[in-house]
Queue: 2 jobs
Job 1
Amino acid sequence: MYEVFAGTLLKRPEAGAVLSLVAVILFFVIFGGVDLANLLGAASWVNFAANLGIVAIPVGLLMIAGELDISIGAMIPAGSMTISIVSGYYELPIVVGILCTLGLGVLVGLINGLLTVRTSVPSLIITLATLVAMQGLVLSASVLLTGKASVPLAAPEWTKAIFGQLIGGSFQIIIFWWLAVAVLAWVVVHHTRYGNWLFAMGGDKESARNAGIPTTKMTIWLFVLSATAATFVGMCGAILFNSAQVSGGMNYIFNAIVSVVVGGVLLTGGFGSIIGIFFGTLTFAVVNQGIYFTDIDRNWSSLIIGVMLLLAVLMNNSFRSMALNYAPRKKSTSKA
Amino acid sequence: MTEPVLELRNVNKSFGPIDVLHDINLTINAGEVLCLLGDNGAGKSTLIRTLAGVHKPTTGQMFMDGEAVSFDKPKDAADRGIATVHQFGGTFPLMTIGRSFFVGCEPTRKIGPFKVFDRKTANETAVKAVQEFGITRIDDGDRLIGGLSGGERQSLAIARAVHFGARVLILDEPTAALGVKQASHVLRIVLEARKRGIAVIFITHQVTHAMAVGDHFAVLIRGAVAANFMRGEKSREEITDLMAGGEALADLDTAMEDYKDSHDGHPPQPASRATVA
């Protein structure tokens, strides 16, 4: 039994995330007096996880490929402001607003991607620059065009149904978008050649290029994906809450990176899994929102996240070396 | 006699004002191991990068099967069957054997309209390819490359190159970082590749390893072929001397530089001129 467990789960990238999730829930139940049924039935952390997860997956893909995108922090408010200004303030059809929003994501993603492949500047610095630049652009554009830093949006019913309705009164529709994105990403990353290219790029970009992988194109597309995902999350928020603010979104940067790293993705690239990122996001959401269901004071949640991050990364490290040192012992196992 | 698989005629390579390779003439035939010997900085790396399509020769020509070729990028050389295996073999330590074996040319199977990575075929093919080279310890394609020993990685990389139809195999110091036993594994694999009719270019500065597998030797000193001979034409001592000769030359050069430094940049004058003055 132990052999099976050790052989299948522990040498996989998601091992740390799954164990962290179990550990956090156990911790809350034992020390926080949480009613498990209550926690599992709650919408707050699932909604939180879905919004974060849609950004965390493309950010995780970039990290597997050895890059980083922190401009998402500005792209989320940029997305919600774009649709609110275009379809709310100027009252253009909502379809135009949606296209402009996603188009902005594609555009900024292209800028990030092109700058990364054309220069030797690390993508952390490039996206830090676009992060700050986009913050300034969104704020000044908003004040210049509408005179305010907060714009209302009244989306038609059908768009609300697709992007911003509450199912059962509390579950955001974006949960389904998240699941769809996760399944799609899982298929592409683990079951197509593109996934193989991704891991090769993260392992050694030079060798990957020599092996004939279009690394430049892949990198640009990954940046387009993450920026567009961020504007999508912003857009869904604006449609759901009928308004958009210039501020906010900065938390997503660290939240997404923590989720991805807890999920077993190696910061230097080349190792990770979609299932891991998925569970990393869930774990983060449970700590962040689940703490309200406990007797523990809310102020402790950051401490718990910090400790959890450290433990998860240490676990991931030892699991990775287990995977590296793993030699097949199938014969002895089957006999035993 | 048939045309050599690969031939270099008067190949020169300069980077800006620095001339690295001088009039390199080399031929290599199918089923032959050419050992390229030379000290660090002798131009071995530049030469193999030129062969692999990373650099283009400044002047001179390369021929494959008697036909002039010119490579714009490494992919061009790879398409003609020139494969390079670097010192550390598998370069993706965190990928599985099956996945890294097929990086860039993944086998797929169709599920409906979708092309899906065929992990089973990939693993089986990779394991079979490396076992054919006598490395029977590798029997699970799901193992990570990083968990293999240095010799196994080299062997896997060589098996990979051969599997994808390499005709010229460039091995860049494959035994440099290995222990005695591991190195002998790799040497055996080199002989196996030769047996299959592959032209092997084996770069090393370990004369013993070169003597064990080489049919044909070329010693590179300061970017030029200082000696080019067949197996049995020179003894181990002579080869070592040749390589050391390169070192002695370098010493002489330093002595010259030192002299210039202490004489306002003037080189030492020949004795005859000194007497005239």
Job 2
Amino acid sequence: MKQILLITDGCSNVGLSPIVAAAHAKAEGIAVNVVGVLDHGDAGESGSMEIEEIARAGGGISRMVHTRQLAQTVQMMTRKTVVQTIQLAVQKELKHVLGSGAIEDLPPETRSEVVRVMDELGESSSLQVALLIDASASMKPKLIAVEEAIRDLMLSLQARQGKSEIAVFHFPGGRHGEECKMDLGWTDNLTGAQSIFPKLQMSGTTPTGPALMQVIDFYRQGDYGRRSREETDGMMSDYVV
Amino acid sequence: MTTSFRISLRRGTVVTGKWKRRKYRVERLLGEGANGKVYLVHSDQGWVALKVGADAVDLQSEINVLQTLAKQGRRQAPAFLYDVDDLQGSDGRDYPFYIMKYVRGVNLSAYLLQNGKEWFPLVSLNLLNKLAELHSKGWVFCDLKMENVMVADYGHVELVDYGGVTAVGKSIRQFTEIYDRGYWNAGSRAADLKYDLFSFAVLCIQMHDPKRLHQLTLTLLPQNRSTEDLEQLIATNASLKPIAGWLADALAGRFADAAEGAEAWRMLMHRTNRKQAAPTPFWLKGLVAGSAIMLAVSVYWLLRMGM
């Protein structure tokens, strides 16, 4: 199962629409979840509309939260999306067998059996979550909470019986005009005290759409076999949306 | 973590199950868990509790746990599950529900407030025994907190909201941050029997020193949170200090399960009870010393008179 979790606090303002990008992700079998972090209501009307629409296009869920609730929200959304992904797959199968896809339409006894299998799958299937962090200037004071949420998510994922990995990206990428930069390649372990975002240069632009496209491409490359971090970085900077 | 949830049942509404056609008359809302709302309802068997969920899958996995528990329990376990069905909400959608025993009582913090802290040792022991029952069947309660512990007359304890109950070895699906071992950087978020004992220890702190516990969550940086902070709090609280050793063992995962924890708790209660009786009052010591002096004086006097 593949997920992208976008953490942002406002509107994109450069490049491809993030809603189009999220639809691309969905087509690739990647669910897109979005967390809007708003401490002083700074996302605004259009910001929260965009957040909701990205998630809808990406087949995921969206939440608006205060920084303090970030860790718990991220963990809950990831779990919820795992359940949803399995539910979609199971519903497809059910449609073949029973003609009706909805779990709700099953009589209680059958439903009990189906959900038992779904729970088992949710626990044991492998899961990859790529976190995409908005590092535009207004997000700076929230990055400590973001890092805490990432560590907390890793802790929850480590408890699963299936293989679970995360990768971390931030956008905009920095000096070289990259849309986004990888901070951490696929890993199942975040031990050690070093920071995930050592020295971020905050910048004004918010290229959410192009950054999403790069993460989708990162997933695609992963499917052809894992490359070393340097190689992957090199390939990504060549990528033109 | 509560799911956004629109359904609400009004008093007097009669709910009819879609599959089995049993009827329930709604009395009032009892509470709200992560997976749904719990109502007190009247059926032909008397008062029972109805839990209605927004999500069929979430509620069903909770029901599955209760069904397995009901099968495992021979005679001791209460009948958890009376009926499982769907009801039609006022919006025309179907919502899954199940019927369980109605647990009378108030939640833990309300009970101690009404009846006094002197009930704390006994109620806690009863709670540990409840957890031990679950543990003996290979289940971890996981979301242990004030709201999920109901206490009835004479300290009788029942656990409510089985939505978080997880088989040993699986990942924990429902928890509350301050009671969570992972939140305090003290271990994994995989369900094991020691997890409940950690939460129980935090629950004890929450009962006696909620203000300072809350303060810790505000001031400590996430990466610096540790059980040492909790232990410091315990050491400086008069009510918690006598059980500091037990709490340290629970926080460090030194009890294998709740049964072992309960045994140690029982021993501790006896010891503290004896200790309270043991110290001789100051006036009694004075009296003994006084009468000894009197005796010496009178013996001396008698001897002198006799000589």
